[in-house]
Write a structure and sequence with these properties.
By secondary structure, the chain is of the alpha/beta class. Helix 4 links the parallel strand 3 and strand 4. It starts with 16 loop residues before the first helix and ends with a strand. The N terminus is likely disordered.
Length: about 290
């Protein structure tokens, strides 16, 4: 079924009956490898070099975290451990890539807990398809709860960092599937920036973003949503959450002169298992040389 944006609506994958049963098993046992891997959170560090980056932002550190899916498969204890791990990175910026819980009700409760993410400059956040399930009225409530937690929501909006007369922009849209994304608006807001980072929850929007202009309005895109396939074999996912299949499955890509990171994310959906796609957060250091 297509939504009002002409896209196939992405229903939030609820925990399956089998998944709930698997969640009762000990995730710390390596013999139960898919369960074990799903709980082994990695921090992936990368020095990202782009000669278009103004020297004023050389060395800026960005922590990127996506797809937590707090709820049945991701406990309060795991959430607190995640927050501590992210804060220990001492990043200048923390960017949260969406899907905080299993649905909009869960996303609202997630932010009403006021999770404490500590960045030196700011914490930015976009929304994912799980956060944008019905009711639609939850959107302003979720955004308000984000702000009360010290987090800047980017829903068809751009946040800018200015230094030494240069502008670095971060552009976030509403969810591609279940929201009302406005690519033209964020592209327009990025025009005055010297360097722009695009923050869509799903990489499925990238072909439309590239079609807006040549060169694209951003130099770097940070995405989640795919879970790296969650269960993947040699870079291919038997079941994909993307209508583009494995085109943007996991890792780094370069397309139309822009760089793209697709993260495996943190949590799981439908079942608490992973194979070939370990959970990850990212610490990206921007460099101009």
């Amino acid at each position: 079924m297509k939504n009002q944006n002409g896209k196939h609506e992405k229903k939030a994958g609820k925990p399956s009956r089998l998944g709930k049963w698997l969640a009762l098993l000990p995730a710390g046992c390596a013999l139960l490898y898919p369960l074990y891997l799903a709980a082994q959170l990695q921090t992936v560090e990368k020095a990202y070099i782009n000669h278009a980056l103004p020297r004023a932002f050389h060395g800026l550190k960005i922590a990127y975290v996506s797809d937590i899916h707090w709820g049945t498969f991701f406990s309060d204890a795991r959430l607190q451990k995640l927050i501590e791990q992210v804060n220990a990175l001492e990043a200048d910026l923390i960017v949260l890539g969406g899907d905080y819980a299993e649905d909009a009700d869960g996303a609202l409760k997630f932010w009403q807990q006021k999770p404490v993410f500590k960045a030196k400059v700011a914490t930015l956040a976009v929304l994912g398809n799980h956060d944008r399930t019905l009711p639609e009225s939850h959107l302003p409530r979720i955004q308000r709860a984000m702000r009360q937690s010290g987090v800047i929501p980017l829903v068809n909006d751009v946040w800018t960092l200015e230094k030494e007369g240069k502008i670095l922009s971060f552009a976030g849209i509403d969810d591609y599937y279940n929201g009302h994304p406005d690519l033209q608006k964020v592209a327009r807001l990025c025009r005055k920036a010297d360097f722009s980072v695009f923050l869509p929850h799903s990489p499925d929007v990238l072909p439309q973003a590239f079609a807006l202009s040549d060169p694209p309005f951003f130099q770097l895109a940070l995405c989640g949503h795919t879970h790296g396939g969650q269960v993947a074999l040699l870079g291919w996912a038997p079941i994909s959450s993307s209508h583009l299949g494995s085109r943007y499955l996991s890792g780094w890509y370069r397309e139309n002169g822009a760089d793209i990171l697709v993260s495996n994310g943190v949590g799981t959906s439908v079942m608490p298992v992973r194979f070939g796609a370990a959970p990850q957060i990212h610490l990206i250091t921007l460099q101009c040389e």
